[in-house]
Every structure is written in structure tokens, then in C-alpha cells.
Amino acid sequence: MNKAELIDAIASSAKLSKADAGRALEATVESIHKALKKGDRIGLVGFGSFSVTKRAARIGRNPQTGKEIKIAAKKVVKFKAGSDLSGSVNKGK
Question: Cβ contacts of residue 9 below 8 Å, gap of 6+?
Fold first, then answer.
């Protein structure tokens, strides 16, 4: 599902216009960006949680040459699926 399809699904599910659904999605994504940039954790009960963790600097290897390279430390966004989401995905098995 791409962004346009998600907007269509939100619009039909919430009985909103596509424009309103698009603005709602944009506002949600923007709010998540801002919160993660500040280092906050976002928990959506039943869906999952977003958090920012620090990845330490490390030594890697260039797969083409085999030469060691330095990989800088950075912050990464992690998502952990909630139990409801995991359960609904695994029900089809």
C-alpha cells in the first residue's frame, strides 16, 4: 500500500474527504517526526511504539574490497509492533 492508497483507505473508513484524510495523515506523520526528533517515545496501544536509540560507532568492511571502514555513530528510529498488530498479522497462518 502506498501513500495514496492509505489516504483512500482512511477516507473511506472514517467517512472523510480524500483532502481531509490527506491532511490528517500529513499532520500525523509530521507530529511523529517532531516527537522523534526531540527524542520522545511514541506509543500507540495495540499498534506499536516508535523510539530513537543511539547506534555506537563501529568498524565495518567494504564488501567489494574487504577494506575496513569506520562507520560513524548515529541515532536510529526503531519500531516495535504491538500485540494487537502482531496478532492480526499472524492470524492468517
Answer: 1
